[in-house]
């Protein structure tokens, strides 16, 4: 199974921006919630949404940017998007389960970061492909 979602809007460069902690937290929360809502809604619409999170997936995140970022900034700024795939937290506790099983960084899913310079349509494209077996697609 595959799931394709586009998150419209320019992804903020939080790694190189000086922001008050509350403003930074608000941007992180916005992108985490946007990802959660769009992916869970798309999963229900495209696949009937049985409620079971996907196991062992390859996730390709393609960011459409005004100019290229270095790879470290790309991964750091996409962390709220990746977090939104796993679910939402409230007060440090998981309250809503996302489309992916497990936790970020547990090695269960392969996450690929890409970037394209596109000044006409900024945003993040998500392609989630469920693997039949670990390492294969």
Q: Can you give a write-up of this model?
A:
The protein has three helices and six strands. It has helices at residues 21-47, 71-77, 79-86; strands spanning 2-8, 57-65, 87-90, 93-97, 110-117, 123-130. Helix 1 crosses helix 3 (79-86). The protein is globular, with a radius of gyration of 15 Å. The termini are close together.
Classification by helices and strands? alpha+beta
Using the CA coordinates, give the radius of gyration.
Answer: 15 Å
Strand content: 25-35%
The backbone outline, from C-alpha atoms, is globular
The largest sheet, given as strand count, sense and whether it forms a barrel, is: 4 strands, mixed
Features:
single chain; about 140 residues; alpha+beta; four-stranded mixed β-sheet; 3 helices; about 30% helix; globular
Q: How would you summarize the topology of this molecule?
A:
Elements: E1 2-8, H1 21-47, E2 57-65, H2 71-77, H3 79-86, E3 87-90, E4 93-97, E5 110-117, E6 123-130
Parallel strand pairs: 2-5
Antiparallel strand pairs: 1-6, 2-6, 3-4
Helix pairs in contact: 1-3
Outline:
The protein is an alpha+beta fold and 137 residues long. The chain contains 3 helices and 6 strands.
